[in-house]
């Protein structure tokens, strides 16, 4: 039986971390960087010797612009949700156990021919670009980040799905020896997410391999994660090891844990409150700025059409 618990990340940011803590942390980080100069960088920079370093920085796609400043890299890199490595925001240390090499991704289900591909081979078959995206966590905090990646659409083309495939299902690696959180049996591991084929082939859906012009560090979901900027952050599954094309809507991790609060669609909507807090506004990470939340996180023009005829669905939870 599922016991109702208050989970760390379910708390709205305003309650979880008072602004003063943000500011203290920010000035602490600033001071630390100044004091030890480059020594603070390994926290955010990918390991030396990363075989994809030559691909960074990728060319920025000018079509994606922001209405707010880019979040400081150090802040984004030290305030994470990655339940495999703990339920606090401070998972950088624990996530060092994750070994993003060698890394194989299985592509299976309803495809012409299932296959496995090494991450370093996959990344050479696609075109990397950098995009500035807003990112909105369901907890009501947000950031704005330069992601590097390739379109999920291009991966779908490589996978060659059959016509019966209706959804794409993503799974994070499963290894409790590496990720202690996965020993907690009440969570429906592995972390699973899904998109409809129409969502997956929308140009906004990005398979992310890098952040701030470098290969993505462990705590952000190395070596490969999803980013769907019009949806709440929990859709953006990290450290993906399996991608399946399926006929049925996959049951997602948070749905499995608390279906009354987290749904499949999870589109950002300021007018639809979470059962326990408002979604009307959001706290910008590392700032005093609280802003009104935008429908589809500001990406309505690109994605609203995906939901025509689905008005009966719980599109915004
Ligand atoms: N595998 C996995 N992916 C995950 C999560 C997680 O706990 N495990 N947390 C999600 C949530 S709730 C958010 S807000 C984002 C956070 O991404 P970031 O830490 O890179 O900012 O990752 C998402 N992807
Ligand atoms: Mo989140």
Q: Strand pairing plus helix content: what structural class?
A: alpha+beta
For the secondary structure, the number of strands is: 12
Summed up, the domain count is: 1
Low-confidence stretches: 1-44
Number of helices: 8
CATH topology: Sulfite Oxidase, Chain A, domain 2
Compute the separation of the termini in Å. Answer: 22 Å
Cofactors and ligands: the ligand Nc1nc2c(c(=O)[nH]1)N[C@H]1C(S)=C(S)[C@@H](COP(=O)(O)O)O[C@H]1N2, molybdenum atom
Tell me what the structure shows.
With 317 residues, the chain is an alpha+beta fold. It has one domain (34-265): Sulfite Oxidase, Chain A, domain 2, CATH 3.90.420. 17% of the residues lie in helices and 21% in strands. The chain is built from eight helices and twelve strands. Strands 3, 4, 7, 8, 9, 11 and 12 form a seven-stranded mixed β-sheet that branches. Strands 2-1-10-5-6 form a five-stranded mixed β-sheet. Strand 3 and strand 4 (141-151) form a beta hairpin. The longest helix has 18 residues, at 19-36.
SSE map:
Layout: H1 13-16, H2 19-36, H3 73-77, E1 104-109, E2 115-118, H4 119-122, E3 129-136, E4 141-151, H5 152-159, E5 167-172, E6 192-196, H6 197-200, E7 206-211, E8 214-215, E9 225-227, E10 240-246, H7 253-258, E11 281-284, E12 290-292, H8 300-303
Parallel strand pairs: 1-10, 4-11
Antiparallel strand pairs: 1-2, 3-4, 4-7, 5-6, 5-10, 7-8, 7-9, 11-12
The structure holds the ligand Nc1nc2c(c(=O)[nH]1)N[C@H]1C(S)=C(S)[C@@H](COP(=O)(O)O)O[C@H]1N2 and molybdenum atom.
The ligand Nc1nc2c(c(=O)[nH]1)N[C@H]1C(S)=C(S)[C@@H](COP(=O)(O)O)O[C@H]1N2 binds next to loops.
């Amino acid at each position: 039986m599922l016991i109702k618990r208050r989970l760390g990340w379910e708390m709205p940011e305003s309650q979880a971390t008072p602004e003063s803590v943000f500011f203290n942390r920010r000035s602490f980080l600033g001071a630390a960087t100044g004091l030890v100069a480059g020594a603070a960088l390994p926290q955010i920079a990918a390991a030396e010797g990363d075989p994809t370093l030559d691909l960074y920085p990728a060319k920025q796609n000018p079509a994606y612009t922001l209405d707010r400043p880019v979040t400081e890299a150090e802040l984004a890199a030290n305030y994470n949700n990655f339940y495999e490595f703990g339920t606090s925001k401070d998972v950088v240390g624990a996530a060092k156990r994750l070994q993003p090499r060698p890394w194989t991704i299985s592509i299976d289900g309803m495809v012409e021919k299932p296959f496995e591909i090494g991450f370093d081979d996959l990344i050479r078959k696609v075109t990397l670009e950098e995009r500035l995206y807003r990112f909105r966590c369901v907890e009501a905090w947000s950031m704005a980040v330069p992601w590097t990646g390739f379109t999920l659409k291009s991966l779908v083309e490589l996978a060659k799905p059959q016509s019966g495939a209706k959804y794409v299902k993503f799974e994070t690696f499963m290894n409790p020896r590496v990720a202690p959180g996965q020993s907690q049996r009440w969570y429906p591991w592995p972390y699973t997410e899904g998109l409809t084929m129409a969502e997956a082939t929308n140009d906004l859906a990005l398979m992310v391999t890098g952040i701030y012009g470098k290969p993505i560090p462990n705590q952000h979901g190395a070596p490969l994660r999803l980013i769907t900027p019009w949806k709440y952050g929990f859709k953006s599954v990290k450290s993906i090891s399996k991608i399946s094309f399926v006929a049925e809507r996959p049951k997602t991790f948070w749905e499995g844990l608390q279906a009354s609060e987290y749904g499949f669609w999870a589109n950002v909507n300021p007018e639809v409150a979470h059962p326990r807090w408002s979604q009307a506004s959001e706290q910008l990470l590392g700032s005093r700025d609280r802003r009104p939340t935008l429908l589809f996180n500001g990406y309505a023009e690109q994605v609203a059409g995906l939901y025509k005829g689905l008005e009966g669905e719980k599109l915004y939870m």
